[in-house]
Amino acid sequence: MSRRLAYLALGDSYTIGEGVDGTDRWPMQLAARLHAAGIPVAEPRIIAQTGWTTDALAAAMDAAEPLGEWNFVSLLIGVNNQYRGRALVNYIDEFTGLLQRAIALAGGHAERVLVLSIPDWGVTPFARQELRSPRRIAQEIDTYNAAAQTVCATHNVAFVDITGISRDAGDTLQMLVEDGLHPAAVQYARWVDAVLPVAKGLLAAS
Prior knowledge:
The protein is an alpha/beta fold. The protein is 48% helix and 10% strand. It is built from nine helices and five strands, in the order E-H-H-E-H-E-H-H-E-H-H-E-H-H. The chain has helices at residues 13-16, 26-36, 54-64, 79-83, 88-105, 125-129, 134-154, 163-167, 185-203; strands at residues 7-11, 45-48, 72-76, 113-116, 158-160. The longest helix has 21 residues, at 134-154. It is globular and about 50 Å long.
């Protein structure tokens, strides 16, 4: 029997799956679909929490040490930096540090790390309730994502853009949990549709 590939998922509310069942979190859905495709990925260890910024995730990783070595690491972080109005330069610096740590946790194999873009919460009913400008949120998230994609390219790490998916019908009740902000299982499944072929390519040689 093939050994099971160890998977570490790093992030915030989107990775912990705020408001959905544990099996509906996108890393759990991804692992299940990879396994069904013949790639024996173990149930992921998730280090993520609602509200975490880049520095909060780094601190949580510090507290969890030693984290050991993993066959596959995913990273999705930054929406709370944008929500709190933090400077782009601060995000770039802290995201870069997290990405370098993710590569180290993957045994130095950048090709075993995958980054997801920040989804656009500006399309949600929650954003309207807060009287926040959807256009401004979209512009800021696009700027954050462009910076993260550049950092990933510099480090030869795969970057999957799911922001467009989050904007497509992202304000409908079907796509959201009860808080009107976080994605429902069906939306996470759409993200996994985009992530799956990239992850399969990264792990096919494992």
